[in-house]
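Ligand: N~2~-sulfamoyl-L-arginine. Inputs:
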Amino acid sequence: MLEHAKKLLAYLKLDYKVLIDDLAQKIKTYNPKITPEDMKLQEEQGYNFTFKYYHSLEDMHEYLDHLSTTYKDFVSTQVIGKSIEGRDLKVLTISSGDPTAPGFWIDAGIHAREWIAPTTAIYIARELVERRETLPSALKKINFFILPVVNPDGYEFSRSKDSHRLWRKNRNPNNNREDIPCYGVDLNRNFDMEWGVSGSSDDPCADVYKGPTPNSELETQAVTNFVSRIPRIKASVSLHSYSNLILYPFGYAGGQYHPNHEELHRVGVVVAQRIKALSGNNYGVQSSGDWYVASGDSADWAASRGIPYVFTMELSDCDNILDGSCFILPPSKIIPIGKEGFELIKATAEAILESSHPKIAMIPQEDSMTTSDSFCDKEE
Ligand code: 0X9
Ligand code: ZN
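Predicted complex:
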């Protein structure tokens, strides 16, 4: 196959460089089949999810349900909407017990191929629920809302075949128009904040297709409807990969900053220092738009809603940035990278509780659901 491609490129007189000798092999090695021993362990624990594999959406949802049934006093799940192919968008709510406590939104898996992001969101959920006894007190004084897979159709598509592994967008057929033969909208270009002004495309075949209108996608709508109604929301974190970066708004332009950007930068630097001490890894801290401009991302929208702490975290570096497959990470990275993600959640929680933010205009109260709504919508 590689030899055939090389011949073709030579014939076409096109310059090339082989980045990965055998991508299929890399995909297989880093997505191993569950061993019979682990299957047995899963049967014993009563659910299939582990931190040793990249699991299906179903397995991940099963774990969220396990948390909500085992810890029903303070944990619940709710389906906040459906994807374009009809999959559930399942949010885990972890209650501090105080309905007036600050709200904290965490989402992951907006981009299908970034498998380390959903696993990190679930790792964070596990720490917040199953390791509650060991948590710093700040984390117990916050109401968390976690959506580990914003783009379930894309995620399942990327798992369905080796050749789909690097899929990024959702699976909107884009009306199946003959003149638009391409699937998918980039959900991180679809949010309604300076939509389409930079770093996105109006070509449905592009990986950064922004969609036909702002907030056009069911997945984006589910997120914006739900987050707009989180009572006293103080933080929004969006998990992505890769690049070892802690980013804060705005992303639609360089040199445009969230009103709270000095504080966001300070928190980001604290997190980077803690990660360095934890794993030796170096994280950068900067505004999204100073990294590269792209409009319509979830963090810019969250900032536009007046949320004071807004971050995008690009989890994981790349062993070899030129190999073109830094989205494909061995499952042995799930826990170490989960820990790095958790550092951002911890430091943000501490910062929320330490400071008040008179300068930031918050979401008008009439838009918000009551806290009891959010905790009573428990899925049966
Ligand atoms: O391009 C994106 O949507 C994010 N990077 S990723 O590699 N995960 O796709 C970055 C979003 C941050 N926003 C901007 N740079 N504007
Ligand atoms: Zn991403």
